[in-house]
Amino acid sequence: MLKKVLLFGLGGAVVLTVGILLGHFGIKDDSSSSECAQEAARDVDENFVTQFIEEVAAIQIEENLRTLTRVPHMATTAGDEATVKYMLSRWQDPDNGLDDAWREEYKVYLSFPNETVPNKVTVVSSSGSVLFTGTEKEKPYGPEQEDEAVVQPYAAYGPPGHAKGKLVYANEGKVSDYEYLNKTMNLAGTIAIVKYGGAGRAAKAINGALFGVAGVLVYTEPRDINDGKMSDSSETYPHSWYLPPTGVERGSFNTHFGDMLTPYLAAKGDSVIPEADITGIPPIPIQPIGFQDAYELICELDGPGAPEAWQGAFNCTYNVGGPGFKSTSKFNSSDVQLDIYNWAELRNSSNVMGIIRGSVEPDRYVIYGNHRDSWVHGAIDPSSGTAVMLEITRVLGKMVKAGKWRPRRSIIFGSWGAEEFGLIGSTEYAEVIFNAFLLTGDILSPLTNATLRAQASPIAQSVVFTASKQVKTPASDLSVYDNWIRYFNRTSPTHGLIPQVPYLTGAGSDYAPFMHFLGITSMDISYTYDRSKTKARIYPAYHTAYDTFDYSSKYIDPGFTSHQTVARVAGNVLLRLADSLLLPFSCSDYAESLEQYLSTAVESFNEKLAQHGISMGELITHWGHWPLKVRGINDQLMLLDRAFLDPLAFPEKISYRYRYTKHPINIPTPLPLHFPIRHVIWASRSSSVATFPGLADAFEQAEKTNLKQDWDQVHKQLSIVTQAIEGAAHTLEEVI
Description:
21 strands; disordered N terminus
């Protein structure tokens, strides 16, 4: 019999997401019968995997998506409630549903625009005349955009208020962008127009406030999203996948994940902090607009031309502003005014959960999750992932109901609510699990039809490779693996040429609380577009009223064969984690990644550190004795990422991307928010040096200041990394 083990994995994410969580289970010593012994020793059935792949049907996924996108379903709205009921009906179906399905409700703090008093952007003359009014709704090209439930474009968690001032163009709203402008003009009281990218949504306003900016407009630059295409008469949707001129990217303008009022605890109605103490949200009015309105404003700006890197697709020179408009402009001497009427309240939000109980280890479990809520119809984000998940549960549920299969370990399926407002559903679930000493981990993302792409903890890449080798690409005999390696690849010292699998160093999806706070091995797998043919940073209709079934079926995946391919790969991964006798993870892959980090650190820092009396010798010595490459027992494999947690490693990295307060010299200063970022290896970093994040960031800061306390911080981070690796080595040692 197997010895008692602990297993972990993960769930939840944006767009197409697969979360895999392995919980705690102790196997009883009950092997008296040979039948029980054979069942206990059962491994993954390759014939069943093949049968699963064959039964996943594109037409079923298409119909799932058609149903899921019939109405807008922003979190906690009537459309969302209809989707909750649909998920429950599917998972409670007597013929192909799950063993059980239920809803879990949380009371969460959400932000909305005022339905009766819409947000406004205007250009106002010195006499008070309105010379220009921004578009309040996206232009309709079909019935989807005319649906009354389409939410007006707004910045969720942006504060209500009124701001008026001279306009300036501040590129991406980074601190460095505002610093550039601040050298030649006084930004106090201005309105900044910035484009998406470079800095997080909320950071664009938080950064601007440091310099006295009164309000911010955010637009989607057609050079970044549309390959420069701008005309809806022939170039953009409905004629192609490109964003139309009035399209506006909505989003959550906060800097951390989870319910804002209940850090560390599930949001069950009792707030931990008062609303007035919420941090990490814009301190000044902010509003997203379409590039049609941005064109009208930017091309009228006065002042010197912006740097070349700030220029875009408009047929004018992007000037930075005087501040304000040209003397020859129709807007001469006028101000831009923002009138924002956003409001917030507590709302009930639901996760929908379902389970297939395991036959051998029912209390050890795998979670597969995808978020359900969208900003509008959400065909790609998130409903493509939900449509895929429903097809996987249909195929597996049918097998279970017919008595033809039952997984070794239990599988829990999760449909997360309120993800778009800051990963709320998955985070609240993680907080419940955390308090119950159980946990999760694994994931997938955006969909278009060129190739698979994955991010993962290195220990998990091998199972994705195995699954992708067994699935064919659409209309081809080429395996997904062989196609993938053509688009994204690297040379591994161990394996040779393999697909490139970047690390999960950010917080872009529902893996964040599990990976960065709880140390759970995670993956984020996507089927994506050919990036050699477009410079689009994401699919162009992202978070707009044009992300519809029509858009998906015409321009993203006609025939839904890419959805089918992802379902086959994702389901294959799921089956291997649920049915394998020993978990299909590779410690040698983790070792290789850390060796790469170590090599980069030594090459980049060793000489300079020696000059300050700091030695990397202990780190190098510990690495030489690390037994990663020879150990492979389940509990040690699954606890490996946890070995790299240090709750005090990054007191400044607390589930934020950008969180600033006023500093005497306008340097960003982090403040604590929800989950502390604790993973020593995969925390985010601001340094460009691809190595241990705490060490890299501390070294960069010390080089800038040359202050003793900053070099002491470098020494501290080096010690943290060294001790983490030593601890991981002990995790993998033979048990005596």
